[in-house]
Every structure is written in C-alpha cells, then in structure tokens.
Amino acid sequence: MTSDVKEVKLDFDAECPSCGASVEFNPKTGKLSCPYCGYEVDIAKPEQEEQRSAQELDFYDAKNRGRFDWGVEKKTVICSECAAETIYDALQVADTCPYCGSHQVMEASTEETLAPNGVCTFEVTDKEAGESFHKWIRSRIFTPRQAKLSAKPDAFTGVYLPYWTFDSRTISYYSAQYGINRTVRDAEGETRIVTDWYSTSGVYQEFFDDELVSATRRYDRDMMRKIEPFRLTDNKGYRPEYVSGFLAERYSIGLDEGFEEAKSSIHNKIEQAIKSKVRFEHGADIVGHVSFSTTHDDITYKYLMLPIWLSSFKYKDKLYRFMVNGQTGRVGGSAPISPVRVGIAVLLSIAVIYMIYLFSQS
Questions:
Q1: Which positions, given as ranges, span the membrane (predicted)?
Q2: What are the domain boundaries of the chain?
C-alpha cells in the first residue's frame, strides 16, 4: 500500500442474515431488502424526533469549510465479504465490491470533511425511471421519430449526490430608475411613445429557505438543474442503510464556496423581486439601473444526499446521457435533434410573424 492511500473501515454491514448476500435499500418499501432470498427488515428510526430529519445547522459554527478535491486522495477498503482490498477515490461513500458484488458503505465523513446530516431517499425505481425516460423523449418536439421509437436506455445507475441547502434572512437597500410611458402627438398628427424617467430607493426584505447548491464537480450542472426541484422537506436523518445498494459521493465543493454560489443565485432573485416591487408600487412600464447591497443574517445550512438515476442511450452511434430525479421521476438530458424539424419550425414562425405584420398594416 502506498503512503498516500489511507485505510478506512466500512460504516455498515450489508450482509443478509438469511443467505449471506448483500441487502440494499428498496425504494418501493423503504426497507432493507435482499434481492436474492427476499429478506426484508425495517431501518431503525431514531428515538428522538429531531434526529429523524436533517436539522438546520449554524453556518458560522461549521468546521472544515473548504473544498475536498477529488482524484487527489485515495482510500483502501477491505471487503467484509471476500476480504479483497480495493482502492477508491476518497470522495466515494458507497459502492459495490468489484470482486464479489457486495455492497460497501464507507465512512461518510473524515477528519477533513463534514458529515451529511440528511438524505432524500429513492422513491422512484429503475423501472419507473425507464418509463419516465420514454415519456420524456416522446415529448421532444425536435427529436427524430426514429430516435423516439428506438431509444432504449442502458442499465440505470442509482447515485446519491451531495448538495448544500442554505437558509438566509436578507435585507437589501436599493436604488433604481423607472419609466412611465405616455403617448404624444406631434404637429403632423403622428403619435409616438415617450418615456418619463424617475428615481426611487427603498428596502427589500426576504427570507430564503433551502436555497439549493450542487456540491459535486463530476456531473453536468445544466443537466442536474433540469431534474430539479427535489422535495427537500421529505428528508431523513442520514443513516448508512439508506445508501446501501447505490453509489454515493461526498462533496467536492466546500461549504464556503457553496454559500458563494447560493448568494449569487439569491442576488439574481432579489434583483427580479426589486424590479417587480418598483413596477407595482409606481405603476412603472420599465425598471432599470437597479443597484443594491444585501446583508445575510441567521444563515443555516444542511448537507443532503439527493437521489439520481443515471443512464444513456445510443442513436446513430452517438451517445446521449440523461438523468432522472430519484424522488419525482423528472428527466433531464440530451437528445438527438432533427435539422428538418427545426427548419420547419423556423419557417412556420416566420410565416406567423409575417401574417401578424400584414394584419397590423391593414
């Protein structure tokens, strides 16, 4: 074993007491199930109510706030079933032994990282994920008909990906300009629109609840956004049993960096909210030149593991990847595009615009 590889222990014994195979979390029953002998057992619930779901944690009290680089550190795990030694990326929390197929749930935190305090478990099975995929691809307007008929997803891989959620009470002090349009008639009798501009300022307050930020760099961010939202309130306090039978990954984007992303998203939402506020209060037609400063108070966070099905399909020798939300079945991904269908849509749009123009001139 090289000096830069750390030995870690398994955090959960996944062995079935009936037949010795590995038990895994069953999305349908919410229990641990053995796919071979049918053995099932409930996952023990915490005695204290506040431990049954993820609790809000004080942002400034958190330690180990930085990022955790993947691909740099490695760890070795001794399989409890076959005693094989496997080296994993240090980000991995759960995987399957490549030698005997047993499920391995490793330590979810280290001395350098925070531990997840919640998990939204899988509610959609891989079969249901396939059904959602077929509905999704049939709804793609610009996808060729043959692709819709022939697309068959490869085997689904269930993975729990790390996310941060942030709560923040915000106060924003703003200034803006707004315009009110009026119609004027010139000496020749022609009318035109004139905008009168005014200045305004004020205070805008809003509490942001569960602002969601992906904490992984390994997957396509745009694709991940397409499968949102998740039902974040339907979470459970983290237990290793919930991730048994799935891949799971700890965060590579740290708490501080995650909050910077959350603040950027919140900033954009506040800007739109201020524009709406000014437009409503002053009966404005246009709002522009908005500037504001925001303070964040009562900041809390949760570190959640969220469920996602990963798969792909081939069409004309090209690979298309997609994801399915493991809670809702919402699909996001890439699909083939027919240039003919796009061209027809463009021509129809031009025809509609031209008809509107002719109508307005009559």
A1: 340-359
A2: 5-165+209-252+301-341, 166-207+260-298
The torsion angles phi and psi of 349, rounded to 5 degrees, stand at -65, -45
Among 50-54, 228-232, 319-323, 328-332, name the one with the lowest average pLDDT: 50-54
Q: Minimal CA–CA distance to 121: which of 311, 330, 325?
A: 325
Assign 99 to helix, strand or coil: coil
Separation in Å, CA 176 to CA 93, 95, 170: 48, 53, 19
CA distance 91 to 120: 19
Q: Which residues contact 245 (CB under 8 A, 6 or more apart)?
A: 14, 22, 23, 24, 25, 103, 158
**What is the C-alpha to C-alpha distance for residues 225 and 206, in angstroms, rounded to an integer?**
23
Task: Let me know the angle formed at the C-alpha of 325 by 12 and 27, rounded to the nearest 5 degrees.
Answer: 45
Structural contact between residues 293 and 172, judged by C-beta atoms closer than 8 angstroms: yes
The Cα–Cα gap between 124 and 221 comes to: 21
Q: What is the pLDDT of residues 110-123, one digit of tens each?
A: 777 888 999 999 99
CA gap 137, 140 in Å, rounded:
5
Give 47's contacts (C-beta < 8 A, 6+ positions apart).
none
Q: Looking at residue 44, what is its pLDDT?
A: 86
**In angstroms, rounded to a whole number, what is the distance separating the alpha carbons of residues 288 and 66?**
37
φ and ψ at residue 141, rounded to 5 degrees: -65, -40
- pLDDT tens for residues 302-314? 999 999 999 999 8
Question: Residue 4: is its pLDDT beyond 60?
Answer: no
251-294 tens-digit pLDDT? 989 999 999 999 999 999 999 999 999 999 999 999 999 999 99
Which residues have CB under 8 Å from 7's CB, separation 6+? 1, 75, 76, 77, 78
Dist CA 219 CA 230 (whole Å): 17
- Cα torsion at 234, 236, 241, 243 (round to 10°)? 50
Among 163, 301, 306, smallest CA distance to 234 is for: 306
Closest Cα partner for 278 from 174, 208, 181, 169? 174
